[in-house]
Amino acid sequence: MAxxxxxxxxxxxxxxxxxxxxxxxxxxxxxxxxxPEQLKEVQEALYKYDALLFRNVVVTPEDQYALxxxxxxxxxxxxxxxxxxxxxxxxxxxxDLKTIPRVxxxxxxxxGTVYNHEGLAEAKLKHPSHITFHKTRIPPEEELKATRYYxxxxxxxxxxxxxxxxxxxxxxxxxxxxxxxxxxxxxxxxELEVPLGTTAFVSGRTMFEMLSDxxxxxxxxxxxRYAPHPYVWMAPARAMSTGLGIESEGxxxxxxxxxxxxxxxxxxxxxxxxxxxxxxxxxxxxxxxxKELYIDPLPQGTNRKGTLYPNGxxxxxxxxxxELLYEMQRPAISPSLVYxxxxxxxxxxLFHNRGLLHTVVGAFTPDQVRAFHQCNLAASDEPTGPSAExxxxxx
Length: 395
Ligand SMILES: [Fe+2]
Description:
The protein folds into 2 domains: 5-205 and 337-376, 4-Layer Sandwich (Double-stranded beta-helix); 212-331, no CATH class. The protein is built from 8 helices and 21 strands. The protein has helices spanning 36-49, 61-70, 84-87, 204-209, 213-221, 230-233, 318-329, 388-394; strands at residues 5-7, 24-26, 51-54, 98-100, 103-117, 120-125, 146-147, 166-173, 180-183, 191-194, 199-203, 222-226, 268-270, 272-274, 281-283, 290-295, 313-315, 339-341, 347-352, 356-360, 370-376. Its cofactor is Fe(2+).
């Protein structure tokens, strides 16, 4: 029997035509209790729609881990390495994660203090705020009315470990409160009304498909080189007001200020990743961690007018790298292309981490308690780039 799917409830701000292939609610199933046949269908639907929502479900950390692992059976450790993030004090991810002792691949994230939770006597959680990460901030007096996208990202260590295939997010305690206005503050006047503490998603497929022909050609010919220990490297730097990358102010650590690193563990990934089920290309770049770009020359015999870097290039100027990526990625985070999930308690979201970007949004007061379980696993393989046919088609 086929699983029942329904479109996600889109906000009025969303351009529904752009979400025809993005996001589905799976009706009447518990993601922790799927039969092998249902699991197969859920897996296929996940790659087809990139984000699946299960409502009103009770899911144990063990079941959440098992479902996450089913997408990549030989993966085992948390996407950033078990407990590694917490021991690396210099990493900007350090304060955001608490591990469930029984199932260390599942993290407790949220806001406020949680007691007697899955073997944790007391966990002090802090919802990440743009105030400590962005270069500019919303004035304190407007801080609870207005907010920002914290950091658009792929869940990935971007060094040594491979980006997880999927992430699962389970909302256990969801504070109620007024919606907030997410400001872009980038001179465009863009803003988006968002539910309190939303997780915002944009499609990497849409991000690719809306590029100009020139940028599509560049995208299928390019590889991104990430910094070693990118979250340590970027720690002193500050982000742009849209949360879509870092301001180029020369604040990143130098390579010899970083913890020891090896060239062989540096990640170089294609700019577009091929969906294993649909074959579509998704523009998948974590803008904050990028250091350099490698661009291949046009394939032999291709001669298109206005092609960017027809002879290829290796761009090492960080400002130039970031400006180019921002030009390519910014259109896809326009308000009408963002899906801000309106969390209800016992919502379980499974998303294609290699097919979209997402971000934390919103500002809570310290007494607003939010508790979520998050799981993703460092993958057993690297993402697949465009095929020879894709390159032929788009280059
Ligand atoms: Fe994330």
